[in-house]
């Protein structure tokens, strides 16, 4: 299955009218143009430094820059969001105003609120080009809202884990079930993490490693989920590298964790095989 960036990347290529050729756009001309459209709201020094750090921005002609900047401004984007959006996704400079508006309308209809849509699109501009139609997005939001309770919480989940938009729902529900039923983590803590960017095995292996070390103890069903406990925070467990997790959270070595993952993978596979055999019987 393609990842979120891969889905968007593949789709985006269909918008390009041919191989992009380098232009002779000069840095001073681009800075002057951006400064004009934004009415001087972006510091010239910041513009210069940003373009120098991202020289590919000079590969697009001045008309494209002016067209896209003006379109985004007309759609209500504040000046400070414009440059990060384009730096994150310069392909948008190939888009027509109609294509940009169509992409934005798809998200405005999700009822996240205008400002939240702008924040989401600024962080992940490729969302303007996702191939899924509006009905798919609405259905995905409704499905996640059963767990997240509110649209605002679904928006937060998208901000932290944009793959939730394109991943198959069959991959998402087992993660939700594991966090709820096995780890017994409450929703507010989940909303502070990027846990859904991890695959289920990563979530399980990190949790079980801590559990077998006696560091993580899930609350019983009878206990209040809101009650404070001494378990490591979910973001410490999931939003860290293997090395940081192993040494700073599990107080073990990276080598020990890697050996555990290999053994645990075999254990999980054996359990799956046993379940498959039982189903056949």
Automatic annotation (TrEMBL):
One of its GO terms (cellular component) is mitochondrion. InterPro entries: MTERF, MTERF_sf. GO terms for biological process: mitochondrial ribosome assembly; mitochondrial transcription. Pfam families: mTERF. GO terms for molecular function: nucleic acid binding. It comes from the Eukaryota. Keywords: Transit peptide. Belongs to the mTERF family. This is Uncharacterized protein. It comes from Lutzomyia longipalpis (Sand fly).
């Amino acid at each position: 299955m393609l990842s979120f960036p891969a889905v968007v990347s593949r789709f985006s290529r269909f918008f390009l009218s041919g191989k992009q050729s380098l232009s002779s756009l000069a840095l001073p001309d681009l800075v002057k143009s951006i400064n004009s459209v934004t009415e001087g709201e972006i510091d010239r020094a910041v513009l210069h430094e940003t373009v120098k750090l991202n020289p590919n921005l000079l590969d697009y002609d001045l008309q494209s820059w002016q067209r896209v900047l003006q379109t985004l401004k007309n759609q209500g984007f504040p000046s400070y969001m414009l440059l990060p959006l384009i730096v994150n996704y310069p392909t948008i400079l190939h888009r027509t105003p109609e294509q940009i508006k169509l992409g934005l309308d798809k998200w405005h209809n999700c009822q996240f609120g205008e400002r939240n849509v702008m924040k989401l699109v600024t962080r992940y501009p490729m969302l303007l080009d996702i191939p899924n139609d509006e009905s798919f997005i609405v259905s995905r939001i409704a499905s996640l809202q059963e767990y997240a309770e509110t649209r605002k919480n679904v928006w937060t989940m998208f901000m932290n884990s944009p793959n939730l938009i394109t991943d198959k729902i069959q991959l998402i529900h087992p993660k939700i079930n594991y966090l709820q039923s096995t780890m017994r983590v409450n929703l507010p803590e989940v909303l502070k993490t990027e846990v859904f960017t991890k695959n289920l095995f990563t979530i399980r292996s990190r949790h079980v490693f801590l559990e077998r070390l006696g560091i993580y103890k899930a609350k019983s069903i009878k206990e209040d989920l809101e009650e404070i406990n001494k378990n490591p925070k979910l973001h410490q467990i999931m939003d860290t590298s293997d090395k940081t997790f192993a040494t700073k959270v599990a107080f073990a070595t990276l080598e020990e964790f890697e050996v555990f993952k290999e053994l645990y993978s075999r254990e999980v596979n054996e359990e799956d095989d046993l379940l498959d055999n039982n189903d056949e019987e």
